[in-house]
Amino acid sequence: MKNVFGFWRKKGNGSVSVSVPDSDNIPKHVAIIMDGNGRWARKLGLPRIVGHRNGMKAVKRATIAADELGISVLTLYAFSTENWKRPKDEVDFLMSLPQEFLALELEELIQKNVQVRMMGHTEELPEHTISAMEEAIERTKNNTGLILNFALNYGSHREITECVKELARDVKDGKIQPEEITQDMIGSGLLTGGLPDPDLLIRTGGELRLSNFMLWQTAYSELWFTDLYWPEFGREQLFAAVTEYQRRTRRYGGLS
Ligand code: IPE
Ligand code: IPE
Ligand code: MG
């Protein structure tokens, strides 16, 4: 049954119909903090890495659903600059996932015209992780569909610090004057340079924080949180988040 807003609601028999977002107001850029893999596994009495492996299936579901909705950019927070603090076994496993994911999915991503990108600090990443990502980036670089942007060894504080260093170098070299630094120069000096800011930021796993993710870029993003763990995420949740996004009034500090 449709409600007054035109969203599908729970049917009388208890089964849930998926909210179908309005195709005229699809967010261009959706960013997701994919959290809760470990807790999902623990709930089932399984090792954390099983949670990460099942998280990969949710990545596939989210990608297909984002493509179906006509979202332009899907950024997925896969590994933060702080996640190196975890036990080595877990870090090693996480670093092997891009390879595993792409071995399974790259052909289909190519077929679906998806363009794979990566944003993060590559210096610390193992060679096998980088080469798997580079192959995917290279083989999809001319694709014109959904941009699937993996945030891997990404952290906003470091991203902003590196941008500031670069601008300081430009000042030192006499290329610009300090007064000439603009917000746009900072925005384009970040790892997202060239991409629109996220319209919608989703975090699974129940935590209500950003964990060093896109702090500059999310200044006016709409936020959507769910207690579901990342391996439980799929089309229904993405559609629900986008439907909720479409109910929001974005004022950017002005009046509606
Ligand atoms: C998200 O799940 C994946 C990464 C941060 C790499 P977690 O591994 O953080 O799972 P929880 O939050 O411990 O449940
Ligand atoms: C955020 O999750 C990072 C990723 C999803 C990659 P964390 O699990 O690392 O965040 P905290 O530690 O709960 O803030
Ligand atoms: Mg977590």
TrEMBL record:
Binds 2 magnesium ions per subunit. It comes from the Bacteria. Mg(2+) binds at D35, E222. Its EC number is 2.5.1.-. Keywords: Magnesium, Metal-binding, Transferase. Its cofactor is Mg(2+). The keyword Transferase applies. The active site is at D35, N83 (proton acceptor). GO terms for molecular function: transferase activity. InterPro entries: UPP_synth-like, UPP_synth-like_CS, UPP_synth-like_sf. Substrate binds at residues 36-40, 48, 52, 80-82, 84, 86, 203, 209-211. CDD domains: Cis_IPPS. Homodimer. Catalyzes the condensation of isopentenyl diphosphate (IPP) with allylic pyrophosphates generating different type of terpenoids. PANTHER family: DEHYDRODOLICHYL DIPHOSPHATE SYNTHASE 2, DEHYDRODOLICHYL DIPHOSPHATE SYNTHASE FAMILY MEMBER. Belongs to the UPP synthase family. This is Isoprenyl transferase. The lineage of its organism: Bacteria, Bacillati, Bacillota, Bacilli, Bacillales.
